[in-house]
Amino acid sequence: MERPICMLPREAGLLRRRCVRVANWGEATRPIGDLLDTWGTVAAHGIAAPQIGVLRRLFVYRPYEDDDEDDGGGAGAPVAVVNPKVIKVAGEVTDYDGCLSLPGIYGQTRRAERIEISAQLSPSETVRLKFEGYTARIIQHEMDHLDGVLWIDRLTDDDLDSLYTLAEGPVEAEPVDSDSAARPSPLKKVPLTTDDREFVSRSRRPLPGYALHW
After folding, report:
1. Check whether domain 12-203 has CATH 3.90.45.10, yes or no
2. Which of 19, 100, 141, 167 could form a disulfide with 146 if both were Cys (CB 3.0 to 4.6 A apart)?
């Protein structure tokens, strides 16, 4: 069933809660179906369960490298990930971030360049998965959602000055309105208004220190 995306500040109570582990695959079946049904209604590289109001540790994503593929069950189809757990991370890179739950606002965050996780991809399959590049960023963004962490929490006070929205203008390589997505768009960056900047400042919950946290 298609579900609406939870937004700040309206559903902050859901978005800020830590999700619980999925006890069995049957418990995951309906949320996965709802995430996949919702997938076609948004421009996203990933959607996490709490973004549709389900406080379970699962999300769907599509590798960034598959962005131009068909969604008809081929390489570009979204993948469901259940009970993901970080094994290790390496490197560090700063790149675009944005979120369906905070639409229209973008910035840059520091995340690991490479990540390895364990997760269930089917009822009987627990695997180790390695990601790098922009797909690693997508995975980290969605896993943050499962702990009630939003991308704005990874900003420093100084980073608030570099946040922006998009408006019609010259073509630039900027993200579209999606979770952790970056692609060419006929839009230009516009600094946030004072009201929007204050809204982000009020809404974020900064992670302790200026480091990568898991």
Report:
1. yes
2. 19
